[in-house]
Amino acid sequence: MHSTHALLPIAGLWLALAGCQETVDTNDTDGSTNVHPPTVLWTDPNTDATGVPINAGISVGFSDEMDADTLTGLTFLVTSGDPPVAVLGTVITTDGTVSFWPSAHLASETTFEARITSDALNVDGVGLEADHTWSFTTGSTLAPGLPVNLGQANQFAILAKSGISTVPASSIIGDIGVSPVAATYITGFSLVADASNVFSTTPQVTGDVYAADYAPPTPAYLTTAVRDLERAFTDSAGRAADATELGAGNIGGMTLAPGVYRWSTGLLIPTDLTLSGNSDDVWIFQIAQDLTVSSGTQVTLTGGAVPENVFWQVSGLIQLGTTSQVSGIFLSQTSITTATGAAINGRLLAQTSVDLDSTVVVAPGQ
Prior knowledge:
Blueprint: E1 2-10, E2 40-44, E3 58-62, E4 76-80, E5 85-94, E6 97-102, E7 111-116, E8 132-137, E9 156-160, E10 163-167, E11 171-173, E12 175-178, E13 186-187, E14 192-193, E15 200-202, E16 205-211, H1 218-238, E17 243-244, E18 255-256, E19 259-263, E20 267-269, E21 273-276, E22 283-287, E23 291-293, E24 299-302, E25 310-314, E26 318-320, E27 325-332, E28 336-338, E29 343-350, E30 353-357, E31 360-362
Parallel strand pairs: 9-12, 9-29, 10-13, 10-30, 11-16, 11-31, 12-16, 17-19, 18-21, 19-22, 20-23, 21-24, 22-25, 23-26, 25-27, 26-28, 27-29, 28-30, 29-31
Antiparallel strand pairs: 1-5, 2-3, 3-6, 4-5, 4-7, 5-6, 7-8, 14-15, 15-16
């Protein structure tokens, strides 16, 4: 299960916990359930690490799947200074790993104390044996950005919660899916169910089509993918910004280096945009309102940059104009709409609907 807790007052930059303990053993010789505490397998940064980049995230790996509801600002405590000052950030829980992204760059040349309490439980309700406290010290440098983990949502070219529609003929290379709604909310595709009823097919999709009312294991598969979509949205929204309000919300004609860009308004791309970097570089665009790409506009990647490392986190609508050509992972808290002839090299992941009009979508790696 995946869960997120945004902008929590973490009095202890806690993602990288530590405190090695034993895994839960459900096979005692008498057949009873053993309730040994979970084990911390690794942390990043390590205890007493120095020179930690000021834009670093903090991660910790557990031996067990943890109960995400117990990993909050009450169990992750992060502070710096005397008296201690709490750090705000976003906590992302994925099975045995917890990651914490500070909401702003950490202070340079500063020691942080982190604590996770024994109230952080695994899915069997067993907590850490004791509170664990550790510390690390920042340097003054910025580290290269890390891509957002899409989890199982990475298996889809299009994933939506309330529906996918098309005005034929669209062309999609990669799987598409809807959940929690049924296949009747996938319209304009003329679906043909497979004999297994696990998926369906259509000439418009080079891949499989999934819906929440198909036969197992599809419902569980989609539930996990949608949770991962939501987690990825919160993860990308929680990264500390390197630049804010660039172009007053209009970045047409610009060439942008890798980084995290944030706007408190909508974002307009009326003319061509270039993202210049290598295959390891990451761009995250945090947009508080709508994203609008004008008709005929191109978002071009140069220098070896790849679409799977470009993330458009949009709290409002995403609107891609007629014959526009864009790249990246589009994460909308609402809907995504494409006009006639739009082309996307990436993924469309929406928390409501995706509506296509004779559009080409090619998932990365296809």
